[in-house]
Amino acid sequence: MFFSRIRLHSRAASDPGFFARVADAYEAHSLVWDLFSDGPDRERDFLYRQESHEGLPAFYTLSERRPADRNGTWIVESKEFAPRLKAGQRLGFMLRANPIRSSWDLTTKKHHRHDVVMAAKRRLKEAEPDRTRWPTEPELVREAGLAWLAQRAERCGFTFGPGEVGADGYRQLVFRKTQVARPIQISTIDYTGILTVTEPGVFIGALQAGIGPAKGFGCGLLLVRPA
Predict the structure, then answer these.
(1) Which of 25, 38, 75, 149 is 20 to 30 Å from 169 by CA-CA measure?
(2) Can 2-80 and 90-226 be said to share one CATH topology?
(3) CATH number of the domain located at residue range(s) 90-226 in this protein
(4) What are the backbone dihedrals phi and psi of residue 44, each rounded to the nearest 5 degrees, phi first?
(5) What does DSSP say about strands 90-97 and 110-115: parallel, antiparallel, or unpaired?
(6) Tens digit of pLDDT per residue, the chain (227 long)?
(7) What pTM was estimated for this model as a whole?
């Protein structure tokens, strides 16, 4: 595996049209894919997260292969990623995730995906019509987001304690692959905090595979460092 930091080259930064592209989630997905695509049959074998470096777009990626910039748009810095971890080790982490829950509709015989924050709001609306008695949105995001992450932590080989993780930055993104395509909508929450590794092998597998859905759109990459 390779961990890479990918920063925008100064030549590309002078093109105002570039920033319009990278602001769109699907276009950003395409830009990252271009760094890894080496043929029409290539399947995605990388995770990524979009950030900003000195006010310019940047990406962090974890991949099976080194990314390759073929047109001089990016400055790519890569290093091998082979962490050695032990049970009980504490790590600082950041994660941008698409926290959803799935349910099976007996009538339509289809799976439905529910944004955990919107689902929490629907439950509140049914239980308490008076919105002045609701938690604030940041409180709602934190509660629903942490409950979602806690459910996944055990099967991903880690745990975290009360007050060790924050969940905020809730966003709803809507985009289209083409102008006439049906809109795609995803929601994201940013997690930051301290975790404890419980099963090193399982945890490394989660680092490589990512956590949650929408990995093709910048979600799921777990960035870690020594605590």
Answers:
(1) 75
(2) yes
(3) 3.30.70.1210
(4) -65, 125
(5) unpaired
(6) 999 999 988 776 666 666 666 666 667 778 888 898 876 677 889 999 998 777 777 899 999 999 998 888 889 999 999 999 999 999 999 999 999 987 666 666 666 778 999 989 888 888 888 888 888 999 999 999 999 999 999 999 999 999 999 999 999 988 777 666 788 889 999 999 999 999 999 999 999 999 999 998 899 999 999 98
(7) 0.88
